[in-house]
Design a protein that fits this description.
binds 2-acetamido-2-deoxy-beta-D-glucopyranose, glycoprotein, eight-stranded mixed beta barrel, single chain, 2 domains
Length: 246
C-alpha cells in the first residue's frame, strides 16, 4: 500500500501488470477454444477419412460383388459342317444351356455337363477390363487363359439384351468352331486380375493361343493330342471350343 502510495509508477505497473497477470487466465479461454476447434478439426478429418474409406470400400465391393445379374439361356444349334448333308441332320437339334452372371466388368458362364454329346462342364469367365478369357475345366480343375476375342464375346449390355431375349424362348442358331492350343504354364496368376485370380486360385493355369496363330499354322498330328471340348455361347451363335495340349 505504501509503495503504491509513494510510487505511482509502480502502482501503474501493478495496474498494468494486473491485466498481464490476468492475461494467461483470459488467454486460457481462447486457448481452450482453439484447442476444442483443433480437436473438432481432427475429429472432422477423422470422420472424413472414415467416410472416404467407406465410400471407396463400398465402391470396390459394389464393383466386385453387388450388381450381379443372373441369366439362364438355351440355344439350339445346327452344325454347319453337316448342314450340306440334309438327310443326316438330326431330327432334334442339339442344344446348349448355360447360366450367366453379367456385370459391367465381367461375365461368368456356367456350362453344365452336356447330356447327349461329348463336352466338359466348365466355368468360362470374360474379364472385359483386362481383356482376358479364362476356362476352368471342372473335371480336371485346370484353368486355361487366352486374350478376350471381342468379335466372339458381346459386350456386357449386348449380352444382357441377348439373354433377356433368350429368357422368352429358345433360339435356333449355328455352330462356330474354335481351336485353341495350350502353350505354357502360368505360375503367377496375380497379373491376370481379380476375377481370374478368384476363379483359378489353387488350380493349374495355362496360357493358350489360337491354333491358326501358331507359327507352323498348327497343322499337327491331331490324333495324338489330348483335347477338351466346351460348348458355350456369348453371342448369337454357339461356340465349340477345343483346347488341345500341343
Ligand atoms: C476371334 O474369333 C474369330 C472367330 O472365331 C476369329 O476369326 C478371329 O481371328 C479371332 N480374333 C482374334 C484376335 O483371336
Amino acid at each position: 500500500m505504501v509503495k503504491i502510495a509513494f510510487n505511482p509508477a509502480l502502482a501503474q505497473k501493478a495496474l498494468v501488470k494486473e491485466p498481464i497477470v490476468k492475461d494467461p487466465e483470459l488467454a486460457a479461454a481462447p486457448v481452450g477454444i482453439a484447442g476444442s476447434t483443433g480437436r473438432c478439426l481432427v475429429t472432422l478429418l477423422g470422420i472424413a477419412f472414415i467416410l472416404s474409406g467407406l465410400i471407396v470400400g463400398g465402391a470396390c465391393l459394389y464393383r466386385y460383388f453387388t450388381p450381379k445379374r443372373l441369366y439362364h439361356g438355351t440355344m439350339q444349334f445346327s452344325d454347319m459342317s453337316t448342314v450340306g448333308d440334309a438327310e443326316r441332320q438330326p431330327y432334334y437339334l442339339p442344344r446348349v444351356e448355360e447360366e450367366v452372371e453379367i456385370t459391367d466388368s465381367m461375365a461368368v458362364i456356367s456350362v453344365p455337363p452336356p447330356r447327349f454329346r461329348p463336352g466338359e462342364p466348365a466355368y468360362i469367365l470374360h474379364d472385359f477390363n483386362r481383356k482376358l478369357t479364362a476356362y476352368l475345366d471342372l473335371t480336371l480343375r485346370t484353368c486355361f487363359v487366352i486374350p478376350l476375342n471381342t468379335s466372339v464375346v458381346l459386350p456386357p449390355q449386348d449380352l444382357i439384351d441377348l439373354f433377356s431375349q433368350l429368357m422368352s424362348g429358345s433360339y435356333r442358331s449355328y455352330l462356330v468352331q474354335e481351336d485353341l492350343v495350350v502353350t505354357e504354364r502360368i505360375d503367377d496368376i496375380k497379373p491376370l486380375g481379380f476375377y481370374i485370380r478368384r476363379l483359378c486360385a489353387g488350380k493349374e493355369t495355362y496360357r493358350m493361343e489360337r491354333r491358326a496363330s501358331l507359327p507352323d499354322g498348327g497343322i499337327q498330328k491331331r490324333s495324338a493330342e489330348e483335347c477338351l471340348t466346351f460348348h458355350h455361347f456369348e453371342n448369337k451363335f454357339v461356340t465349340e471350343t477345343r483346347i488341345c495340349k500341343a
